[in-house]
Amino acid sequence: MSMDRLEIKATLSVDNTGTIVGTAWPFNAGPDTMGDTITPGAFNVATDLPMLFSHDPSDLVGTWSEVAETNDGLVVKGSIHKDQPRARSILSMVKSGLVSGLSIGFRTREAKQQGRNRVISALDLVEVSLVRNPAHPRARVTSAKAYDAAQAVAATIRRFTAASSPK
After folding, report:
1. Is 158 helix (H, G, I), strand (E, B) or coil?
2. Which are the contacts of 115, defined by CB distance < 8 A and separation ≥ 6?
3. Which one of 72, 101, 116, 150 is least enclosed by Cβ atoms within 10 Å?
4. Quick check: 79 and 19 in contact, CB under 8 A?
């Protein structure tokens, strides 16, 4: 097994300004479809990581400005390059839910086999991509539509409560 090859893996929310937030790799969620598990503390992260579409280096659509490990996983926050038509197109796909996954590209520095699976304990994170089908089923974008719908329901309840309250 070569430790030099680039590997691809990666929950996500988006707002109207093009800011995207998500979990690029969930911890304690079992292995991904390739049988890989990444342990907490494994990520060596550069700043200002590229936001690609489907791991295509020629399809740079944004920049991840914040990358941090939490108890739940690797969380990323970044912005779509809204001055680019292609990036605006990808943003529309994310908002519609057509593209709802995150996937990480990395180089393994340290790993061990556990049966058919691999446990990765050290890696260099190279990029995080917006993808339609992530390698890890829990590496997903949380829909902006869901947030907007929740806000609309809350506003309706507030209006109903205010209208039915005794004056």
Report:
1. helix
2. none
3. 116
4. yes
